[in-house]
Design a protein that fits this description.
It is a single chain. By secondary structure, the chain is of the alpha/beta class. It contains 29 helices and 21 strands. A hairpin with a 2-residue loop joins strand 12 (about 370-375) and strand 13. The longest helix is centred in the C-terminal third of the chain and has 41 residues, at about 575-615.
Length: about 775
């Protein structure tokens, strides 16, 4: 048996490998727990919406009236919805594969040795060991406990950790946050809470991203405009005694055009596509909107150990204070500790020692920052020097801390150890050795910090280590510690003073988990959009209150479970990728929203003028379906999934959209009405000719607006300019092909324009281009 296996399995030997394999085979294959949205939720989110309900009602009316060709908008709606479902299912499969890389595993004891076992290979009767941050992967009974505290908030909602002793029950989905121990598995699979393990509740986050809030504001505004206009149109139809068929066609044409049917769909689609792109670059997005949310972050708070550094602790040196065999005693301490962590493992690997069974043990806690063990009636203590030693401290401590190393002190308690589990006071010790630990910086930490600073994001380091150590590491990655390095003991308790410290400070050391949480809560209350990046149990309270939580893939299972996204390969370079991807989402959705709102403004303009005056609508529903497909549907889909630009316009989202859409929609409406009236009300011309002229002008001006939207990016990239011009030309050419086909003309109730019709189309289109240019909407930008 290995030393680790002997220490870890102090409560029992667990199953043999043969017996575990037999039980696994007898149980049969179990379906894996889902790690992202279900098929039902994806279908429901893409179909059961308010706007789809409105469209379904009007489709039913169209079918009842027998005007089947005017129900064409249903085909576009079904196509868009189907594409959305297919794309999100593809995203789900990609994210599920990525989630397997960070899925929880069990420290099962087999044949007396501890080993990592995949979640689906845990069987009834397994002895599973727990360390701080580990997740309980199956229901069981505690076999042995060493100050084991469990976070059961995923199950009960209660955030205060609870103690679990021998004989107590533990449920899957809970986490060990302090101490350690082991439990014997009783129930797995469908008989337990295992379905919670990979976060089936992660379908939606309780907090919406800024873009989602802005989209909702826009939709509510459009509903507020749409309802009274629709009511007014119905009143106008009744006043003019329109027949049922004409009323259905007019109401459908006007009201359906008001509906931005694909905006929400394309927004969620951009989230899904971005999440897949980031998973390929090493970031698992557990909440879809986390990608866009990261682009809005203005303050990033980082843990030091395992975040700026790679988390792989190594023993650098042991500085003797006394002349006895302190080094061997420290090695024995590390080999014998039942409560394991990275520090104890590094000491065990770097020092010689023997495995002993302690009479008592106090596990390490980030609250009191020391641990202790009683061997042969003597209490040995390991912990932070500024907690255990009186000042002044030896020069070896300050010298190593100034170089960014972690320093501990090991000694003998002179008056025993406080046994109060909740409020342990640091024991007085006789120091034996100073322990110096070293960890390497992550290769991409400095570049990531530089990128965030260049983007105007404030970067703060919050750690439980010595302030001097934290400041040294921060300086090595390019973070200026500033005028004051804050120590947790000196942080003010008054809310205003704490907020001032959180805002002005850059480096915070010797913090408790609660102090990290309070600092981030203070920043958030002060208006900051805060992201917390961490990997350990002590980071979890802060991650829970942060606006966005990012965990390291090598971090604790608890940290990964509460995170909005996980850096699968611990690659910090995924952070700049995510920020850029989020800004592309904002830019793409903004452009798509402008197209949809322009169509709605067009409908509102025509209803408010021509519709209310005459009780008619110049175009049939089928005409608007055709025009919207060429000017909004296809371009919107392409723009939503385009690589996009990482920069966006300044100002509020709603203001930017309306600043474009109000004049654009008004001009299209005026030009369309002008073309319709100029042809249909002229002797010798037909109603079909007027509608053909109106549809043609609508499409021509709509494609022109596509060039206006993309003008800046087209000037930046000739290749992109070529793509947009080809897209606009292809859409225009397809419409001309519709006009050139007798069958298509018959279906859409169009006609080949005559000379007068062509003159009107050209004149109305040129006038629209000129007026748009006067309003600042031109594809030609001044350099």
């Amino acid at each position: 048996m290995t030393e680790e296996g002997q220490a870890a399995s102090a409560g029992g030997a667990g199953l043999t490998g043969v017996e575990a394999a037999r039980r696994l085979a007898a149980r049969g294959e179990q379906p894996p727990p889902p790690s992202s949205r279900s098929l039902l939720s994806i279908v429901r989110a893409n179909t059961l919406t308010l706007f789809n309900l409105i469209l379904a009602v009007f489709l039913l009316l169209i079918l009842i009236s027998g005007q089947y060709a005017d129900g064409l908008f249903a085909g576009v709606l079904i196509a868009n919805t189907s594409i959305g479902i297919i794309q999100e299912l593809r995203a789900k499969r990609a994210l599920d594969r990525a989630a397997l890389l960070v899925a929880p595993r069990a420290r099962a004891v087999r044949d007396g040795d501890q080993s990592d076992v995949p979640l689906d290979e845990v069987v009834e009767g397994d002895l599973v060991e727990l360390r701080p941050g580990d997740q309980v992967v199956a229901d069981g009974i505690v076999d042995h406990s060493l100050g084991m505290m469990m976070d059961e908030s995923p199950l009960t909602g209660e955030s205060v950790p609870v103690a679990r002793m021998v004989g107590d029950r533990v449920l899957s989905g809970s986490f060990c946050v302090e101490g350690g121990g082991g439990y014997v598995v009783e129930h797995v699979g469908a008989d337990s809470y295992a379905a919670r393990l990979l976060g089936t509740a992660r379908e939606h986050t309780a907090l919406r991203s800024p873009l989602e809030h802005q989209i909702n504001q826009l939709l509510w505004l459009m509903v507020a405009v749409m309802v009274p206009l629709a009511a007014a149109l119905v009143w106008a139809l009744q006043r003019h005694n329109a027949g049922f068929r004409d009323s259905v066609a007019t109401a459908t044409a006007g009201i359906v055009t008001l509906v931005p049917e694909g905006l929400v769909l394309l927004t969620s689609l951009t989230f899904a596509v971005a999440a897949v792109r980031l998973s390929q670059r090493g970031m698992l997005v557990q909440y879809m909107n986390a990608v866009e949310s990261l682009a809005n972050v203005d303050t990033v708070c980082l843990d030091k150990t395992g975040t700026l550094t790679d988390g792989r602790l190594a023993l650098h040196s042991v500085v003797a204070i006394s002349a006895d065999d302190a080094g061997h005693r420290l090695g024995t301490y590390a080999c014998s500790a039942a409560s394991r962590n990275a520090t104890v493992d590094a000491l065990r690997d770097g020092l010689a020692g023997e495995v002993r069974r302690p009479q008592a043990e106090v596990p390490f806690s980030s609250r009191w920052k020391w641990s202790a063990m009683q061997l042969d009636g003597e209490w040995l203590v390991l912990g932070a020097p500024d907690v255990l030693l009186d000042r002044p401290m030896p020069a070896a401590i300050s010298d190593n801390e100034a170089k960014g190393r972690r320093v501990l002190v090991f000694g003998i308690a002179s008056r025993g150890v406080d046994s109060d589990g909740e409020h342990r006071r640091p024991p007085a010790i006789v120091p034996l050795v100073i322990v110096v630990m070293e960890e390497a910086l992550r290769d991409d930490a400095a570049d990531t910090v530089a990128y965030l600073r260049d983007q105007g994001v404030a970067v703060k380091v919050m750690s439980g280590d010595s302030p001097a150590t934290v400041a040294a590491v921060a300086a090595r990655v390019g973070i200026d510690p500033g005028d004051r390095i804050w120590d947790g003991a000196s942080l003010p308790s008054q809310p205003d003073a704490l907020t001032a410290a959180a805002r002005s400070g850059t480096v915070f050391g010797r913090l408790t988990p609660e102090q990290k949480r309070d600092l981030i809560a203070a920043l958030t209350a002060d208006g900051a959009y805060v992201a917390m990046i961490g990997d350990g149990v002590n980071d979890v309270p802060a991650m829970k209150v942060a606006r966005l939580a990012v965990a390291l893939g090598s971090g604790s299972q608890l940290a990964k479970s509460v995170a909005d996204s996980v850096l699968i390969r611990d690659r910090f370079g995924a952070i700049p990728d995510a920020v850029a991807e989020g800004r592309k989402i904002i830019s793409n959705v903004q452009r798509v929203a402008k197209l949809f709102v322009t169509k709605s403004v067009f409908a509102a303009f025509v209803i408010a003028t021509f519709g209310l005056w005459t009780g008619e609508f110049p175009l049939l529903p089928r005409h608007l379906s055709l025009a919207a497909t060429f000017t909004v549907g296809i371009p919107g889909f392409v723009l939503a999934l385009a690589p996009g630009s990482a920069t966006s316009e300044t100002g509020g989202f709603l203001r930017r959209v309306l600043r474009f859409s109000l004049p654009a929609g008004g001009v299209i409406g005026a030009a369309t009405l002008l073309a319709y009236l100029a042809v249909s009300h002229v002797r010798g011309q037909s109603l079909e000719g007027g509608r053909t002229a109106a549809v043609t002008v609508f499409i021509a001006v709509g494609l022109y607006l596509l060039l206006v939207l993309e003008a800046d990016r087209m000037q930046q990239s000739r290749r992109y300019a070529g793509v947009v011009v080809v897209l606009a030309a292809a859409l225009g050419g397809t419409y001309l092909a519709v006009l050139g086909s007798a069958a298509a003309r018959s279906f859409f109730a169009l006609t080949v324009p005559g000379v007068w019709g062509l003159l009107v189309i050209v004149a109305a289109t040129i006038a629209a281009f000129w007026l748009l240019g006067r309003l600042g909407l031109s594809p030609y930008r001044r350099s």
